[in-house]
Specification:
The complex is a heterodimer of chains A (283) and B (560). Chain A is of the alpha/beta class. Chain A has helices at residues 19-33, 69-79, 91-97, 99-108, 153-159, 173-185, 207-212, 226-234, 253-256, 274-280, and strands at 41-45, 60-63, 84-90, 113-118, 164-169, 190-195, 214-216, 239-246. In chain A, β7 (214-216), α8 and β8 form a beta-alpha-beta unit. Chain A is globular, with a radius of gyration of 20 Å. With 560 residues, chain B is an alpha/beta fold. A seven-stranded mixed β-sheet of chain B has the order 9-8-10-11-13-12-21, sandwiched between helices. Chain B has a six-stranded mixed β-sheet with strand order 2-3-1-4-5-6. Chain B is globular, with a radius of gyration of 26 Å. The chains are: A alpha/beta (283), B alpha/beta (560). Chains A and B meet through β1, β2, α2, α4 and α10 of A and α6, α8, β9, α9 and α10 of B. β2 of chain A pairs parallel with β17 (412-414) of chain B.
């Protein structure tokens, strides 16, 4: 059994044919190829079908509240920077309920990987529109079609200064594995938005639709060009897949934190001296 | 009430009242028993704010309504104070500040002209400090040192000018023929002047706090500021979160990974944290939460005081899970209870709340230094082995807590109901076992109950119960009243409540509860949890603390 693999009898709660299975396969492959130690990896997540991912990967995890995977991730990484931290969830979880955390963690630039399954629909709650649903799509709630403009996570991330912004597709596991490895090894906040079909509730953005409406970025794409990357983030029909933007060597949140300026020891390994506190209690 | 002497400074936001209060408290505190409290408007500039400094022959920690010496710092400083001025009050002010007001003895004090003579209106506050120092006969060297420290960042010439202004002010008041103030005190050991916020902050540092993520909200923010200022020296990671929801979720992430975190917030911010409190409950992730109460509902009175969020703290969060709530009433307790909060959060893997309020946090007390206990720094984190199960039922009710990266095991934590391993389950039997495991911690928590303090005669027939910031008030009352057999029970752990409280109540003929809220929230909890019949609830909920005079008048009517 691979180190991150679960017991074969594990009951997985996803629908048969769900893109989540492929994403899981790519994730375990990426973690394995990076030769990471499961005891040194932490996954955080919120609620939703995608957010169940940590349940099916044998590593440390904190599966918290809907929308709140990122606050957990940045905190874990900041008190123990020696851990590898991945926050994972769906489009509703990370861009809707957790939208404020998405914005502000880009600003922080913690050294974490952020994987967002984007199927443009709410799955676990059975088929409501998501922040990324296209205008006009009919859903169980938007019965006459979605009227709000879809959220553009990649454009938002690039404009806010994210240091790694990529898009993958669950239908191409080898390419997704490469993107995941790049995101995990990237120093700083790495957003990987992952297109996936929802076989139960999204009859518009199907596997075939994604195949027909995406293309893989050319190898000669200059991922260091922020304005070019922003233009790519606005491209649709077809949507580009790959690393749109990456900038190296930006200081991370942990590196910038005052508490790590004079001492790189993880916070959790430092000792408190009560004599110093008592000194503050003396006039 | 105690023999005391009250000085009130009345001015507006931005006039330097805070600096004056600090300087007077630090210098007068060496030679008197002192206590200061303030009431401020919710604005950055203008309005009317007052600072009260109470000097006494014995320790005091209660607000006094009547004023002995009143200093007016502008032309609208008198407007809200008529009712606090008596015939004997001496009012120090520029002529123009007194217009339209009767009462009291007027003592002209032209700080503006004095500052002008010194060459700069900026010296007004230092002049006034000197003037008050002259009245109180404060040690000149001490005052000079305080001024030099306060303005250490400024040029030597400016410091020298301030010292001159101080001396000028001191000289101006020394030869006045004023009514006497109060006898000085010789403190056996120097006392630390500190406010409630600092006491909570010291307790957090003493409890091993190395993480704070919070969103600013009055009156809770000063704790975030305190820990920020000590972040480097004490290895505290400070994060101003994007919202309160992030703040508590981040704090849970920090505890999960092995840190000791706190959030500081007020009622409105805490309301936003409720779901995360529930997450702390089901995942058995420790948390320490400082709730600085102010009057609600909603925005309420942002800079005023109330004890209206006890019910919020007791019932916050969906589902059923244990919690601990402390309500310190004086600085030593704020230090010890906050320190203990971290210890108990770690030991029982539950959220622990420190419930304070604006009045307590902003009031300045005197505290004798005391040695801190090492024990609360003890970590309950275990090194995991390969077979580690985060929620092992054999360890009912407290399964040892591992953290990621420490040992060979994996630490799996889930907000869904979970198995011993931490995986999602819908097995009804497991659900019940896990629920019992969480709730059964309460009996252990009660074994660690922070006992209530009885002040006054053991053979009381009247028992006054209070919590949190009313400590100083009720203590002063029972220690000075001419009624005998009146005692004060100060409840510092307000949840869960221990049976021992009932025994105190049963021994009394009359039980009164004193609270700064409209509905008697502790009184209701005492009835619900301990079946204590409260005869009278003495309540105040207009945004102000009780004054000692008001309290004496109320009790005169209320006592059998």
């Amino acid at each position: 059994m691979k180190p991150f693999e679960m017991h074969p009898n594990t009951d997985i709660a996803w629908c048969p044919g769900c893109g989540d299975f492929s994403i899981r396969k790519a994730l375990i492959q990426a973690l394995t190829e990076l030769d990471l130690d499961p005891t040194r990896v932490v996954m955080t997540s919120g609620i939703g079908q995608a957010a169940k991912m940590p349940q099916y990967v044998n590593t440390n995890f904190f599966n918290g509240l809907h929308g709140r995977g990122l606050p957990l991730a940045v905190a874990v990484k900041s008190v123990n920077p020696s851990l590898t931290v991945i926050a994972e969830g769906g489009d509703g979880d990370m861009y809707g309920e957790g939208g404020n955390h998405f914005i502000h963690n880009i600003r922080r630039n913690p050294d974490i990987a952020h994987f967002v399954h984007n199927n443009m629909i709410y799955g676990l709650t059975q088929g409501q529109g998501s922040p990324t649903s296209p205008v006009g799509q009919k859903t169980t709630v938007q019965v006459e079609g979605v009227i709000n403009e879809p959220f553009n996570p990649l454009a938002v991330a690039i404009s806010l200064g994210a240091t790694f912004v990529a898009r993958g597709f669950s239908g191409d596991i080898p390419a997704l594995t490469v993107l995941m490895k790049a995101a995990i090894t990237h120093k700083g906040y790495a957003l990987l938005d992952i297109f996936q079909p929802c076989v139960s509730f999204n009859k518009v953005n199907t596997f075939k639709w994604y195949q027909e409406n995406t293309y893989i970025l050319q190898e000669n794409h200059d991922s260091g060009d922020r304005m070019k990357a922003l233009a790519l983030a606005f491209e649709k029909d077809p949507y580009p897949l790959g690393i749109l933007y990456q900038v190296e060597n930006r200081p991370t949140y942990e590196e910038k934190a005052p508490v790590y300026q004079a001492d790189k020891t993880p916070l959790i390994h430092r000792q408190r001296r009560l004599t110093a506190v008592e000194a503050l209690m003396t006039p | 009430m105690r023999n005391s002497f009250t000085i009130v400074l009345s001015g507006e936001a931005g006039q330097g009242l805070q600096t004056l209060e600090d300087l007077i408290m630090a210098s007068a505190g060496e030679e008197y028993h002192v206590y200061s409290s303030k009431e401020i408007m919710s604005r950055v500039r203008g309005g009317n704010n007052t600072v009260e400094i109470r000097l006494a022959t014995e320790p005091v920690a209660a607000y006094q309504e009547t004023i002995d010496y009143l200093f007016l710092l502008n032309d609208h400083a008198y407007d809200r104070l008529d009712s606090r001025v008596q015939d004997s009050t001496v009012i120090f002010a520029e002529e123009s500040f007194l217009k339209g007001h009767e009462g009291g003895h007027k003592q002209l004090l032209s700080l503006r002209a004095m500052a002008k003579a010194l060459g700069n209106p900026i010296y007004i506050n230092t002049l006034l400090f000197g003037y008050i120092a002259g009245i109180l006969d404060l040690n000149q060297g001490t005052c000079h040192d305080l001024i030099s420290d306060r303005f250490a960042a400024l040029k030597p010439a400016i410091i020298a000018s301030n010292l001159k202004a101080f001396d000028e002010g001191r000289r101006a008041s020394s030869d006045l023929d004023l009514p006497p103030t109060i006898r000085k005190t010789s403190h056996p050991v120097p006392l630390k002047i500190l406010n409630g916020t600092t006491a909570v902050g010291l307790g957090a540092l003493a409890g091993g706090c190395n993480y704070i993520s919070s969103y600013p909200m009055s009156p809770s923010t000063a704790l975030l500021v305190f820990l920020s200022n000590h972040a480097r020296d004490f290895d505290v990671l400070v994060e101003q979160a994007e919202d309160e929801i992030a703040a508590l979720n981040m704090t849970l992430g920090a505890w999960y990974a092995g840190a000791r975190g706190i959030v500081t917030t007020s009622g409105g911010g805490f309301a936003l944290m409720e779901e995360a409190l529930s997450l702390s409950g089901i995942t058995e992730t420790p948390a320490v939460i400082h709730i600085a109460q102010r009057p609600g509902p909603a925005t309420g009175l942002p800079t005023r005081t109330e004890q209206g969020d006890l019910n919020l703290a007791v019932y916050a969060g969906h589902g059923e899970f244990p919690r601990i709530i402390f309500a310190p009433g004086y600085p030593e307790d704020a230090v010890r209870l906050t320190q203990k909060a971290f210890y108990l959060a770690d030991k029982y893997q539950v959220p622990v709340m420190i419930l304070t309020d604006q009045y307590f946090l902003d009031a300045n007390f005197q505290m004798a230094p005391f040695p801190l206990e090492e024990a609360p720094l003890e970590s309950f984190v275990v090194k995991t082995d390969k077979a580690y199960l985060r929620y092992r039922l054999a360890d009912h009710p407290v399964s040892p807590r591992g953290i990621p990266g420490h040992g060979e095991g994996l630490v799996k934590v889930d907000s869904d109901e979970h198995t011993e391993e931490g995986l999602i389950t819908e097995d009804f039997d497991v659900r019940q076992l896990m629920n019992d495991k969480r709730l059964d911690k309460e009996s252990l928590i009660l074994e660690d109950y922070q006992a209530a303090e009885l002040i006054g005669p053991e053979d009381y027939d009247t028992l006054i119960i209070a919590w949190g910031s009313n400590y100083g008030l009720v203590k002063e009352y029972v220690e000075t009243t001419d009624r005998d057999k009146v005692a004060f029970l100060y409840i510092k752990q307000v949840f869960p409540l221990h049976d021992s409280i009932r025994d105190y109540a049963l021994a009394a003929r009359q039980v009164l509860v004193v609270e700064n809220n409209a509905t008697g929230q502790l009184a209701a909890l005492l009835k619900l949890h301990l079946d204590i019949k409260v005869d009278d609830a003495v309540l105040k909920y207009n945004g102000e603390p009780f004054s000692i005079e008001e309290f004496e008048a109320i009790l005169k009517e209320a006592l059998l």
